[in-house]
Amino acid sequence: MPTALPKNDPELHKAFGIILSIESFSKYVIGIAELVYDNELDRENIQRLLDQYNIRKIEDIKEELIDLLIVYINLILNDHIISDNEKLNIDLLKKYFRIKEGDFYTYRHQEVGDILHRQFERVYFDNSISKEEAMHIVDLQGLFNLSYDQFDKFKQDEISRALEQGAAITDLDTAKFPKSNSASYGLKRRYFSKQIEDLVWNRDNGKCRECKSFEQLGFDHIIPLSKGGPNTFRNIQLLCETCGRKKRDRIG
Q1: CATH number at residue 210
Q2: Does the predicted TM-score (pTM) go above 0.85?
Q3: N or C, which end of the chain has less CB nearby within 10 Å?
Q4: Of 99, 132, 158, which closes a domain?
Q5: 227 Cβ partners below 8 Å, 6+ apart?
């Protein structure tokens, strides 16, 4: 079965060449890295290698494969950009290695925290967030399969620092969202703080951003949660019930 990884990807080839030259892994993890380097990573070759080292299933070496992915992620973040190809490669490698949501957080919490800290430090250094930087933050969450709560815990220190230095919450495109059963303006709340609801309401002038209706309004994610959209001020808009039904899980 041919690999699903893209052929002739010079960046992937270069990254795993570096990994093979400088990293000390077990022989079987080196063997898997060589499969990636040689563009021969597939289920059959992985199983053949596991059999060679009497490893029953790939989940038995999950922690070591997470270490391999962390090294690769560190390399692709050297330029502070995550390309579409790099995101695809990471997603495919996680599937091959059976890495599930929560695994990075459970097994390598400290290492993930160190990587995110360096990225947040760069993004928040000027106390504001551009659209590109906001999307970069969303991509970071996806790289490590983190839940919103897990990711927010990692962000908290850098956000607090920026706020203490006078940053405006709307410039940071982020906020802490305590759960609440109450509602503002008669709208259904989706775990937004009252402050964020007020900001969105005032920005959108209390009307649907699509049809300008003042009736049956609700808060909507511009990039849906199901597609990795964040719970942030800039990713929330007012839509009426009709426009919300039309949009559903589309971006926009």
Answers
A1: 1.10.30
A2: no
A3: N
A4: 99
A5: 249, 251
